[in-house]
């Protein structure tokens, strides 16, 4: 049990002990000490986290504490003939000429560079919260042109900018490409994607982003999902640990918490706050459908009402056959090619199945498997069941 859980139990029991004097006749009665011990153990057990209890840091985040995306354009050199074809990607040549000019290299006018060991790339990175100058972060390098592979390449100095067009980091280094490829005589074999690589600790932070923890006397928590029950339980747990009126639920997602103004005390306060154990509210049942792949994912709380389902497949096949009409010898006719089309329509027989009301996810899976539908067929079946009101869950298509 955590210290916050023990504190919660003792707070609940302090009211009982406060009304009882140690020298009172009731306390001195035989057996009373056992009653007190049982009551204390019961309060401690109530305060213990349940099977699905989670920490506040797993249910909510601090408003303002967030990461920021960075992006940049650069060049990768040192490729083994797998770079951009400069005739089809003129921006690669322009970027290379501009870089050489900045380095003091003067190129003859009208010179057309034909290089196969250079590739134009986009560099992306995530700047974490509280990042400081000199801190190193990972970067991802992706081909922008028609390079065949970035394996073995080196990223040249590339500034990484934020949404405000300011430079926050600078990237450079040797790339790590998790793949391999080979080709010859018009044939090629590739393992994994060779046009994307990663540079661990490949960028250095040059500009810091201020990340204030709260505004004035308050820190705001933002729950991952909008749920009044979870927001209310977090508020109650914080008030039990830190005292009444410390936390106030603003709405189903935001919670306002009074915190110390001193930075050192606020860090210690946030450490205790994010480790408070809370029993969150039950998530609403949901069915996620990926229309591109046919994947169907259901949560534990999905339920079905009694309904009847019939599903059949209709297939239409159109075939075309060419026939040649050859005239007789010395008849003076011409050879004519004619085409004939054959259309076949086939509909699979299907039965009407009665699906009983189900109360568990395993029963839902068994009922849907009884229909004998493929994952792609389930997309239509689940949408029809939702429209009929038989599917007791939120249907989300991604």
Any overview of this molecule?
With 398 residues, the protein is of the alpha+beta class. The protein folds into 4 domains: 3-48, no CATH class; 55-63 and 212-278, Gyrase A, domain 2; 68-102 and 112-179 and 192-205, no CATH class; 286-313 and 351-397, no CATH class. It is built from 9 helices and 23 strands. The chain has helices spanning 3-18, 25-28, 32-47, 56-59, 90-102, 228-242, 263-274, 361-371, 375-388, and strands spanning 54-55, 60-62, 68-77, 118-127, 136-143, 154-161, 167-174, 180-184, 187-191, 196-205, 218-223, 247-249, 254-258, 277-278, 286-290, 295-298, 303-304, 307-309, 314-325, 336-347, 353-355, 391-392, 394-397. A hairpin with a 5-residue loop joins strand 6 and strand 7. Helix 1 runs antiparallel to helix 3 (32-47).
What would you say about this model in short?
The protein has 398 residues and is an alpha+beta fold. Helices cover 26% and strands 33% of the residues. The protein has 9 helices and 23 strands.
* Widest sheet: strand ordering: 3-4-5-10-7-6
Shape: flat
Please report which band the strand proportion falls in: under 5%, 5-15%, 15-25%, 25-35%, 35-45% or over 45%: 25-35%
Largest sheet: 6 strands, antiparallel, barrel
What is Rg? 34 Å
Count of DSSP strands: 23
Helix count, per DSSP?
Answer: 9
Cα(first) to Cα(last) distance is 40 Å
Poorly predicted segments: 13-51
Please bin the fraction of helical residues.
Answer: 25-40%
Q: What's the number of structural domains?
A: 4
Q: What is the mean predicted local confidence, pLDDT?
A: 78
Which class of secondary structure composition applies to the elements? Answer: alpha+beta
